[in-house]
Amino acid sequence: MIVQPPRRRGVTVWFTGLSGAGKSTLAEALAPRLAALGHRVELLDGDAVRTHLSKGLGFSREDRDTNVRRIGWVAQLLTRNGVFVITAAISPYREARDWCRESIRDFVEVHVSTPLEVCAARDVKGLYQRALAGEIPHFTGVNDPYEAPTDPALTLDTQHLTLDEGVERVLGVLRARGYLPAADETTEASSIGVK
């Protein structure tokens, strides 16, 4: 008789918010923390997915929803195989995010709620300025809508939190929902030399 090892439970942490809100920064800081706890981790960044998986899609609502559903489909495959998936995508429409939540099931939505004016002030590429001048159509938060989550697992405003504080809050939600045991705090601390 072949005995299969117990399958580890995966989860998708879905960061959503405006461009410049801090989604990618949080995702990139969270990934090594989860890896240090012994989890398999994949990061699906919205910009990278558009380059490799959704090349050719525009920024109409239909194309944006297609992009988000493609991210969700990949996340669902990985999550069901015990991977901790982290996505960082604007994903502006609630309906597409809800589709991902229903498909993935182990889904933790994190709304990075940094205000528009703060996001615009951080924008080194000048995209917000160009959008406000009418040079970029379909720019989320300026001339295209962003539908904020109505009941996210966590809301983070990065203008009032350090990066470490934001990551700790995400880890806290994962512990509270049973994806990380509380004992992992000790394991992680010892693995990085903290006593």
Radius of gyration: 17 Å
How many beta-strand runs? 5
How much strand content do the residues show? 5-15%
Unreliable runs, pLDDT <50, ≥5 residues?
186-195
Mean pLDDT, to the nearest integer, reads 89
Shape descriptor reads globular
Helix and strand composition category: alpha/beta
Read across the widest sheet, the strand sequence of neighbours is: 2-3-1-4-5
Q: Work out the helicity level.
A: 40-55%
The largest pleated sheet is described as: 5 strands, parallel
Number of helices: 8
The termini sit apart by: 43 Å
H and E string: EHEHHEHEHHEHH
Could you characterize the architecture of this molecule?
The chain contains eight helices and five strands, in the order βαβααβαβααβαα. The model is unreliable at 186-195 (pLDDT under 50). It is 45% helix and 13% strand. The chain has helices spanning 23-36, 46-52, 61-80, 94-104, 116-122, 127-132, 163-176, 184-191; strands at 11-16, 41-45, 84-88, 107-112, 154-156. The termini are far apart.
Keyword list:
195 residues, disordered C terminus, alpha/beta
Briefly say what this structure is.
The protein has 195 residues and is an alpha/beta fold.
Strand and helix map with partners:
Blueprint: E1 11-16, H1 23-36, E2 41-45, H2 46-52, H3 61-80, E3 84-88, H4 94-104, E4 107-112, H5 116-122, H6 127-132, E5 154-156, H7 163-176, H8 184-191
Parallel strand pairs: 1-3, 1-4, 2-3, 4-5
